[in-house]
Amino acid sequence: MFKPSIFSLAKIISFHILFSAQVNASEHDKLIVLTEEWAPYNYMEDGQLTGFSVEIVEHLIRDLGANATLELYPSMRASYMLNHEPRRLFISMFKTKEREDQYQWVGPLVDSSIYFYKKKGNPLVIETLEDAKQVEMISTRHAGLVFDTLKKAGFTNLDNVSVHAKTVYEKLLHGRTDLGISESPLGTKHILREMDYPVDALVQTKVKVVDSALYIAASKDIPDTEIALWQASLDKLKTSGVYDQVLRKYHE
Questions:
Q1: Do residues 42 and 117 share a domain?
Q2: What pLDDT was estimated at residue 200?
Q3: Do residues 196 and 241 both lie within one domain?
Q4: What is the pLDDT of residues 4-19, one digit of tens each?
Q5: pTM (two decimals)
Q6: Considering the domain boundaries, does residue 11 fall inside one?
Q7: Cβ(177)–Cβ(137) under 8 Å?
Q8: 62-103 pLDDT, tens per residue?
Q9: Where does the Solute-binding protein family 3/N-terminal domain start and stop, copy by copy (predicted)?
Q10: What integer is the mean pLDDT of 214-218?
Q11: Which domain holds residue 179?
């Protein structure tokens, strides 16, 4: 029977220690990029995670050679993970004054805003927040930045039982609410197409509730040097022509 020498055993033990250390280091360095269903920036299509922000982040991961994976979760779950778990990134997030100190930021990915919409043909004139407060009912999602912003502004006419943007706009299109608010202009067009409605079935009002750029939000435990590399990679992508190609694809 073969009996390994003390020297051979030492090599085997050393190999296992080195292999274990490499695995642990790899796991330690791993980044999880969290996202939610929010077309056309991040969403599932034919079983694949896609969208403008997803494509941009995939380019950054390849450029950096980062040990990172993208994972889609319900919005509240993704937010919890970003706030409570290490080495987490999140796309796509509005960078607001209230959020600025909570995370580190890479971006901007793209400028975006969120408006009230009314059904085409509705004679309502909505030019200020006060005008919107006077309508009977506004459909919105049940939680999130838009809902919180409206509540803080004193809105008491919110129908906020909807989890999905499609439900928000279905209520508006079927005349069950006077106004609807959920997505950016780009997102609203995307959802109307998915619902087989013409993109002009809803009319964007003049009232902008959210006006901010979308960013990658990062948990604060990620080193500043690592965040700087992600920012440099995004800046390089914007000058390469690839960024504009991806942007045009989702503005068609």
A1: no
A2: 96
A3: no
A4: 444 444 443 444 444 3
A5: 0.80
A6: no
A7: yes
A8: 999 999 999 999 988 999 999 999 999 999 999 998 899 999
A9: 34-251
A10: 97
A11: 113-212
Do the domain assignments include residue 21? no
Q: For the chain, give me the number of helices (H) and strands (E)? A: 9, 10
Shared domain check, 70 and 37: yes
Burial of 248 (0-12, 13-18, 19+ CB in 10 A): exposed
Number of domains in the chain: 2
**176 occurs within a structural domain:** yes
Where do runs of H (alpha helix) occur along the chain? 6-29, 52-64, 75-84, 129-133, 145-152, 165-173, 185-194, 224-240, 242-251
* Residue from 124, 134, 129, 170 nearest 146 by CA: 129
Looking at the structure, tell me whether residues 126 and 97 fall in a common domain.
Answer: no
CB atoms within 10 A of CB 216: 27
Strands 104-119 and 202-218: antiparallel
Looking at the structure, tell me whether residues 103 and 220 fall in a common domain: yes
Both 181 and 165 in one domain: the answer is yes
- CATH code at 180? 3.40.190.10
Residue-wise pLDDT tens digits, 129-168: 999 999 999 999 988 899 999 999 999 999 998 788 899 9
Integer Cα distance of 121 and 112 in angstroms: 26
